[in-house]
């Protein structure tokens, strides 16, 4: 039961700072500035990591209106976490496109800000069993040390910091970036987006509990960074 009542989707979406709508995704997402990444901001300075030359730290992501929107979302969460959770649950149950597609992504930009944010995201997932949530993250210590009972519809997919390497024995769900000429690990799933206009299309591998590791092809334009 929600403690906070909302009269409309617009009110709920304003409460969470608005949703993002990545063109490559099948549904909506929620993001904050990549400048706030705890681990990622350090990796972004290290050449050879998947965060180096990060797509979310340049281009349109750096426009003032975009950065303002990303900060608005972060503040919406940090200013009133309880109301944020209720608003997100309301959105998951009432926004038709999300209900139709049945998927939602956290962080097309940015990353977890600590255990409280993970707890809130997990509570949203538990309260929205009809939606599959994908949470990509590089907060390795946080994920390894947390003891939450993670909702079965929340896939926390931990991203390898180094290209052409896999660490699928370290976490329940992982992802990695491989260059074209490298052989991907056995039983890993190669993201098909590079062959279908850089969109998910009908693929839902990142949200799937049946797929241990998703491998993304390193994007030539960004050298090491990927869209994902």
Summarize the helices and strands and which ones pair or pack.
Layout: H1 9-15, E1 29-30, H2 40-43, H3 64-79, H4 81-94, H5 96-101, E2 103-106, H6 115-126, E3 132-137, H7 140-145, E4 154-159, E5 173-178, E6 189-190, E7 213-217
Parallel strand pairs: 1-2, 2-3, 3-4, 4-5, 5-7, 6-7
Helix pairs in contact: 1-4, 3-4, 4-6
Shape: globular
Strand order of the largest sheet: 1-2-3-4-5-7-6
Helix content estimate: 25-40%
List the secondary-structure elements in sequence, H or E: HEHHHHEHEHEEEE
**Count of alpha and pi helical runs:** 7
Largest sheet: 7 strands, parallel
Query: What value does the Rg take, in angstroms?
Result: 17 Å
Average of the residue pLDDT scores: 90
């Amino acid at each position: 039961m929600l403690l906070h009542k909302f009269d409309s989707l617009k009110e709920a979406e304003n409460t969470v700072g608005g949703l993002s709508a990545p063109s490559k995704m099948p549904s909506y997402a929620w993001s904050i500035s990549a400048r706030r990444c705890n681990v990622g901001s350090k990796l972004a300075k290290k050449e050879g990591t998947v965060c180096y030359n990060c797509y979310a730290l340049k281009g349109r992501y750096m426009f003032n209106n975009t950065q303002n929107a990303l900060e608005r979302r972060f503040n919406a969460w940090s200013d009133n976490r309880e109301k944020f959770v209720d608003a997100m649950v309301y959105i998951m149950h009432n926004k038709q496109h999300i209900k139709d597609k049945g998927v939602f992504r956290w962080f097309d930009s940015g990353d977890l800000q600590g255990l409280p944010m993970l707890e809130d995201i997990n509570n949203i997932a538990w309260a929205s069993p009809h939606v599959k949530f994908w949470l990509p993250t590089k907060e390795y210590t946080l994920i390894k040390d947390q003891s939450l009972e993670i909702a079965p519809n929340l896939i926390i997919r931990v991203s390898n910091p180094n290209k052409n390497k896999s660490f699928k024995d370290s976490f329940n769900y992982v992802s990695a970036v491989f260059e074209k000429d490298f052989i991907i690990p056995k039983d890993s799933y190669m993201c098909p987006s590079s062959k279908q206009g850089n969109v998910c299309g009908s693929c839902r591998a990142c949200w799937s509990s049946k797929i241990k590791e998703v491998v993304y092809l390193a994007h030539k334009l960004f050298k090491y960074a990927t869209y994902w």
